[in-house]
Amino acid sequence: MRWLKFTADRTSSWGIVEGDRVIAVDGDPFGEWKRTPRSHALHDVKIELPVVPRTFYCVGLNYLKHLKEAADKRGEVPKVPDRPEVGYRAQNALIAHDEDVVIPATATEQIHYEGELVVVIGKKAKHLSERDAMDCVFGYTIGNDVSERSWQKADRGLWRSKNADTFKPMGPWIETSADLDRMETIVRVNGKESNRFHTNEMIFGVREFIVELTKYFTLWPGDVIWMGTDGASPNIKPGDVVEIEITGIGKLRNKFVAEVRGSAA
Questions:
Q1: How is the chain classified by DSSP, letter by letter?
Q2: 0.70 exceeded by the pTM?
Q3: CA 214, 217, 221, 226 torsion: positive or negative?
Q4: Which residues pair with 34 in a beta bridge?
Q5: Comparing C-alpha atoms, which of 24, 22, 28 is closest to residue 44?
Q6: What is the pLDDT of residues 147-203, one digit of tens each?
């Protein structure tokens, strides 16, 4: 089932995507809901963020190729992590499918994308074991982890390099039935494929991260975990359109634009 948050006729609601139409529902997927007679053509609705997470978790360096390329750029020997490690991102950075990524006026040309599988949590969970870790997963969506690499190197934290406004596109919907072992992640820039990898070839998988997270934190419905990426990105410039496809889920598309700053009054 594909759950979509959308706006039509100036009203926002949850819906279920069936083919090229979305069926509006009363309620939400994390609680009680029922189908309604209302439906819309998918191309006629405004697709909204699938969720605004209470906590926005993220994973870094979780694919071997990406780990090696990052180490090569630093002139270091790759160090494969021996345990799952988790970071955070900021809600203000989230934007929906087909919304613009705004490149800040003070940014350099080193703007990169990362196509990522996003895990959406469906119920409250703490202290999960490997046996029951996946029970809290509601479904999956797609994320584009945008970064300004010169800021990433210059700052002690990732406060602006990863968390600037619009730097975290996510969507277009939540897919509840997905076979991770069959999925591929495909990234296209201006329609040309730039990266492709098997989505589930992670150093640590979804199960391992949920076990590690719930040792310390309570997961809540609507929380998300971005699972990292493989490969490297070219520099992205204003006007470029990045499309991230994960087979079995769908496609997330966003255009990059330059920030326009108004003149002082």
A1: -EEEEEEETTEEEEEEEETTEEEEEEE-TTS-EEEEEEEEEGGGSEEPPS---SSEEEE-S-SHHHHHHHHHHHT------SS--EEE--GGGEE-TTPPEEEPTT--S-EE--EEEEEEE-S-B-S--TTTGGGGEEEEEEEE--EEHHHHHHSSS-TTTTTSTT-EEEEEEEES---GGG-EEEEEETTEEEEEEETT--SS-HHHHHHHHTTT--B-TT-EEE----S--PPP-TT-EEEEEETTTEEEEEEEEE--PPPP-
A2: yes
A3: negative
A4: 26
A5: 22
A6: 999 999 999 989 999 999 999 999 999 999 999 999 999 999 999 999 999 999 999
Location of structure tokens 């991770």: 180
Instruction: Give the type of residue at 247.
Output: T
In the prediction, which pLDDT does 66 show?
Answer: 75
The CA distances from residue 199 to 9, 70, 203, in Å, are 36, 19, 11
